[in-house]
Amino acid sequence: MSQMHSVYEQMRENILSLGMKPGERFSERTLESRFEASRTPIRAALSRLEGEGLVCRDERGWSVTPISFGEIEQVSEFRRCIERDAIALACERADPGHIDVVVEMVTSCTIDGPRAEWHRVGTELHVEIARMSGNAFFVRAIEDVMLRLARARWLEVWTTEGRERSIREHLHILELIRERRRDEAVEAITTHASDACRRSLAALMGDTKQRRGLAIVGGSA
To answer: Where is the HTH gntR-type domain (predicted)?
Structure first.
């Protein structure tokens, strides 16, 4: 693995897991020391993260991009539109073996397992549903959407209740795809995405330990 890719992967994971908090400022020199890397790979990694909207730069230096309520709402709206079409095609085209693999992936998560694993599986589930559609453009779109929502979605698996709800809803959606129940699958994934957006925004607006210290744009401070 190249030095640039190593720095990029570590920073990306820290940002998406809220280890590096929205609004947190940092310098290239600090990153050089932290990752024991030279300036060139650090700048290349930052350029890639900037392109993904995870870091931003101003005259004072670098910072982790604040969470934007407006962006969450718009991305969630876009997500609902593309997931409805993707799951409709998945109900027609999904291979039963593919569904079995995804079900196994979902059930592999234990309620008391690492939050990072729950977050990863939740993301991959939606990408795999898009893959079942047989359309690569849906896959790319969902990958981008889930990246944009990653930090807000982190709060979805904060509690045991959230994890139990996640596995229950995901398995129900997969069963609807398996049974080719197109209209019900479209309704289920639309409701799932809408509720996830609502819960994330509510958690970010509330005075909860999850949200403290996070820079949030468009909500109460």
So the answer is: 1-67
Exposure b/e, 7-42, CB count within 10 A at least 16 = b? bbebbbebbbebebbbbbebeeeebeeebebeeebb
Q: Supply the Cα-derived Rg of the chain in whole angstroms.
A: 18
Structure tokens at 19: 């280890």
Q: What is the CATH number of the domain that holds 125?
A: 1.20.120.530
175 and 81 inside one domain? yes
Q: What is the dihedral of CA 71, 74, 78, 83, to 10 degrees?
A: 80
- Per-residue pLDDT of 189-217, as tens digits, reads 999 999 988 888 887 776 444 445 555 66
Cα–Cα distance for residue pair 144/154, rounded to 1 Å: 16
Tell me the pTM: 0.79
- On whether both 119 and 87 belong to a single domain, the answer is yes
Total domains in the chain come to: 2
Helix, strand, coil distribution of the chain in percent, nearest 5: 70, 5, 25
Please give the residue range of the domain that contains residue 37. 3-65
C-alpha–C-alpha distance, residues 130 and 140, integer Å: 9
